Structures
1.
Amino acid sequence: MDREWNDNQPIYRQLRNRVVAMILDGVLKEGDPLPSVRNVAAEYRVNPLTVLKSYQALVDEQLVEKRRGLGMFINTGARNLLLQGERQKFLAEEWPRISATIQRLGLTPEELLESAKEAAKKEPKS
């Protein structure tokens, strides 16, 4: 996880978003434990209550479950739940702006597809 914080959002929300990104990227998989609150707090020099608040947000969203005495773990289906929500959010919030830029620049579907193919060739293989 990145150690830099921005002032646009509370730190607990940024922590939550980083965990979400790790789930979407496959770094954290279903059943994997989250790092302990103490370890994250020490590593990122934030208050343990801040980490706990971000983890609680993940529990509230049913992405993570608490196991008494064991810690917190990624729920089954968390990635699919996130993908569904993130896709809807992208289409509602980001796509209109991107679409407007595409139209403004006069880009064709063929140009976009070719650009996407070129970008895919450059991506490192997992």
2.
Amino acid sequence: MAHDELPTHCTELFAPMGAARSRRMFGGHGIYVDDLFVALIFREQLYLKADAQTRAAFEEAGGERFVYDSADKQVTVGYWTVPAEAMESPGLMQPWARLAIAAALRAKASKPSSARRNPKAAAAAPEAKLRKAKAAAPRGKASTRER
């Protein structure tokens, strides 16, 4: 496949699961379903997100883990290939896509919210909204103060 054909094909495979899109990143592409990062494409290979609960399914199906070389070592991350037949149709991809979406949802749920990561920003947010609302409020032609 040409460089941009695989991301298009993969978004078609994931389309039954939600709003699927691809985005260029790190010399490859990221695949999102409903703005949830569920897969990556690197060197014309699709890798789906996996975690401790889903890894065994990918291993049993003969999946290969995503590995890349850093400056001084090889790094493995929680993304796995799918069986070749899953690449043939959205119906065959769906069980694998469900596993990737479930893993991505668990990962998202385990991350602290922005309020916990940056308490100052969370505290300032209501004040900023109030200032913005006041600035957007319509102003009268005349002052309501008594003279």
3.
Amino acid sequence: MEIIISNSSGIPIYEQIKEQIKIKILSNELRENELLPSIRTLAKDLTCSVITTKNAYEELVKEGYIKNIPSKGFYVAKINRDLAFEEQMCEIEKLLDKAINIAKINNISKEKVKEIVDILYEE
């Protein structure tokens, strides 16, 4: 499983791992009941601490994206697609709200913001 970590992003490593696994699950790159790498294996592959990968997996379990089967490992959970969609929409709304507030503070027009969104969406 390919996960790319940036030490300079300002986002905690466990959060980067969690978000990338979540994206792989939502895009069906990782499928329901698929076995994930062990905490130790993932830590070794990513050259990060076991605590970091443990935290990422614990968060994914709490959010319902993966499940832990004792003595067997971590597996992709059955995802409620509607709920996952709503969560993603809320995240998009928060980010857009922040961007719009920045635009308003800097007197950037709605049309300019729409133009930026169109360009970014097409990439």
4.
Amino acid sequence: MNEPQVWTVIGILGTSLFGMLTLMSTMFVRIIRTEIGSVRTEIGSVRTEIGSLRTEMQAEFASVRTEIRYLDRDVQVLTKRVFGDGAA
């Protein structure tokens, strides 16, 4: 282990290993940031779709409530017509 060439090769291999680790970790961080950004974009579009679905469902529920009120009124009129006023 006293040969200068051995120490030079060990130094080059160590430096190469450290450089590759740095390069891979930098690339990994960039990829993770990009993926997180795309997930945030997708979540934003999902929130928008959920908001529009919520508005649409509220409108439909309001129309169903109105229909139920009309149905209740019609049933009361029919009940009074069939059974009378009940004041007998």
